[in-house]
Amino acid sequence: MTIKLVVGLGNPGPRYATHRHNVGIWFLERLAAQHRASFRPEAKLKASLTTITVQNQDIRLLIPNTYMNESGQAVQAAAHFYKYESTEILVVHDELDFAPGTIRFKEGGGHGGHNGLRDIISKLGKQDFARLRIGIGHPGDKALVHNYVLSAPNKSDEKLILDAIDEALCHIDTFTVGDRARAVNALHEKNGK
To answer: Which residues are catalytic?
Structure first.
């Protein structure tokens, strides 16, 4: 199934732009820049949107303009408006369970405690959408998670994250419109199984 909508999760506004929770947006901004595409606000979708073309297929890139725990509003609105199946959606998000520099594609699954995924699953009524999980590391104590995700990584972790994003960008075209298994294997092999 071809991916028709790629969603980058995060919180809106400059206050949050450098935070670990926004690495999904970092990915989408780099993907859009690679295709010389510019995001524009779409009030009806509660999101910013642009379109890229990969192997003659249009793929919409969407950044919700809501806070993370309301991400499902924009995803649901776009899926309804453009008539996308949940299996045609790829959600890019931060992953506490992976060290910085680790990045993985995943098909479906639960929310794993991630509030953005929880809201998307709730609004779509399905959890079979694809994910690109970008490792940000874990602070080591559950009580510290909130402040950890809402703060910027140190310079060495930031470099690991951005390098992993750049590696994933090398495989995103294949994942979205080509041989998905080949893209998964290539990224995971390069990224350390």
So the answer is: 21
56-71 confidence digits (pLDDT tens): 999 999 999 999 999 9
Domain ranges of the chain: 5-190
pTM of model > 0.90: yes
CB 163 within 8 A of CB 103: no
Q: Which CATH superfamily is domain 5-190 in?
A: Peptidyl-tRNA hydrolase (3.40.50.1470)
